[in-house]
Amino acid sequence: MTLATTTIPFSTIKFIDNIPRLSDLTERLTQKLREIRMDLTNREPQRVADGTPESIYDLITDADTARIRRRAMRYLERLHSSTGVQHLPERDAALLTPLRGGLPVARIETEHEADEIAAALHAEMPWMAPATEVVWHGLRASARKELPGLRFDPLVLVGSPGIGKSFWARRLAHHLGVPTTSIDATGEPAAFSLVGAQRGWSSAAPGKLMQTALRERHAGPIVIIDEVEKSGNVQSKQGSRHTLTDALLPLLERMTAETWECPYYQIRVDMSWTNWVMTANSQWGLPAPLISRCVVLDLPDLTQAQLQFFVEEQGAKRGLPRLAIDATLEAIERRMAAAGRTPSLRTVSRMLDRVELMAQRPVLQ
């Protein structure tokens, strides 16, 4: 797992502490004008027509007061505009506080570190070697170019359900020490779930991409999008169409991702260090613009030997006794004989969960 990080200026927001109130600023400017006019070091108060001493308050006219207020208002308007969040309600502006000072991204310092991460991931899931190899080359290039963060080509992993595509992505995030966020393209309005909805929509809210950056205080998560080929469209009452592909394309291009604008907060942020792993059950339905920006890998189904390797490896990690591991392998063989096909990794994981639960139960004496 990589522990090195670099802090990047994630947003253009300017955080200003203790912005003065209009009344306080007006009073300060008024007092300064009095001091200038009195020239306190050289001038004594004059006597007015009736012989009474001149009051310092008589030095400021109503016109002066109006001019001071106008200047104070212009100053505060410019000050608020310079923050970049002047258009937001106070509550939403406060939610952006984690962006103060920038956000970290994980960094690969040497090519040897990239080799170790790829080797550890391959040892866990050797059947995902094509995907691991793409990431490996990306990590080595990041180290070789001395990039402040790590990058690899956006991936679309195509294969049967349950071969471990999403599990592999989560294990990759674990080894890289970066957060993840997941989107089910079939179970939610994927475009809005990813990037959010702008104000004016009834469902206006920030998307998972921005929420992850704020919650995890990290600018380089791995975004996992499951069954990307099945994502639908969202159409507004005005007839405009919103697709997941439309939302993804500017984020997959590094140059446009550097100045990506969050639809909800309407601020520009650097999403170019986000890495993408998308899964699909087939290439049918994948839009051509998406394919052109990603590495699309066709992954084979799991073999019995690979499933056995997974059970052995996961059983050892969970601390299962040998008897429990053997019983799981026998159950898999029976299931294969009955169904005529290899069970999915998801099914095997559930079997291991049940075995682990049973192994942890106390024994009655």
Structure commentary:
With 365 residues, this protein is α/β, with parallel strands linked by helices. It has helices at 22-38, 62-83, 90-95, 111-124, 129-144, 165-176, 190-195, 208-216, 244-252, 254-257, 288-292, 304-318, 322-339, 345-360, and strands at residues 5-8, 103-106, 155-158, 180-184, 196-197, 205-206, 222-226, 233-235, 241-243, 260-261, 268-269, 275-280, 295-298. The protein starts with a strand and ends in a 5-residue tail after the last helix. The protein has 3 domains: 22-89, no CATH class; 103-298, Rossmann fold (3-Layer(aba) Sandwich), CATH 3.40.50.300; 304-360. It is built from 14 helices and 13 strands. The strands form 5 sheets. A 5-stranded parallel sheet has the order 4-7-12-3-13, with helices on both faces. Strands 1-2 form a two-stranded antiparallel ribbon. A two-stranded antiparallel ribbon has the order 5-6.
